[in-house]
Design goal:
With 162 residues, the protein is an alpha+beta fold. The chain has two domains: 115 residues, P-loop containing nucleotide triphosphate hydrolases (Rossmann fold, 3-Layer(aba) Sandwich), CATH 3.40.50; 46 residues, no CATH class. It is 53% helix and 13% strand. The protein is built from nine helices and four strands; from the N terminus they run H-H-H-H-E-H-E-H-E-E-H-H-H. The strands form two sheets. It has a two-stranded parallel sheet with strand order 1-2. A hairpin with a 2-residue loop joins strand 3 and strand 4. The longest helix is centred in the first third of the chain and has 18 residues.
Length: 162
């Protein structure tokens, strides 16, 4: 980071330190705004509601300028309102940045709303792969996650023989 190379000069207020500091603050403000946290900018992170803490974590990660943002169940434990705020932030990242998102998530409202491509695993085995519309209508996904009444029907769906 440029700013760390100018530590002595930074103490004296010389060189690129002031510019780097100003740019960092502007970037932080931008992502706080995107995460709808500007009004809480001076609050300790631990004092924020759980959903806001999740959005703050993502905003902090985005300040590093990642090419790939890896998220492991960011909607876990969120209520529907918090999930909607998370979706809004993730859609904004997809639309306005060059950052790709790798998402591991069980909340299908989040997955289907922000994904271009979905891979579904069941006990570590891939059972479906494609667009959200394709995956949503895949009989294997329906059988695995929504269940079926009849074992024979489940075997047909899974491609097995009864």
């Amino acid at each position: 980071m440029k700013a760390s190379g100018f530590t002595i000069l930074g103490l004296l207020g010389i060189g690129g330190y002031k510019d780097a500091s100003r740019e960092s603050i502007e970037l932080a403000r931008y992502w706080l705004d995107k995460a709808d946290l500007t009004e809480r900018a001076d609050d300790p992170a631990g004092d924020l509601p759980y959903g806001a803490q999740r959005r703050l974590e993502i905003a902090r990660a985005m300040c590093t300028g990642p090419k790939l943002l890896c998220l492991d169940e960011p909607a876990a434990g969120l209520n529907p309102k918090e999930s909607l705020a998370l979706n809004t932030l993730l859609r904004s990242i997809r639309k306005e940045s060059e950052t790709s998102i790798l998402l591991i998530e069980h909340d299908m409202s989040v997955v289907m709303e922000i994904s271009d491509h979905v891979v579904v695993l069941e006990y570590g085995r891939k059972i479906s792969d494609g667009t959200p519309a394709h995956v949503k209508s895949d009989p294997k996904v329906i059988a695995a996650y929504l269940g079926v009444d009849d074992e024979e029907e489940a075997a047909k769906i899974a491609g097995g023989v009864v």
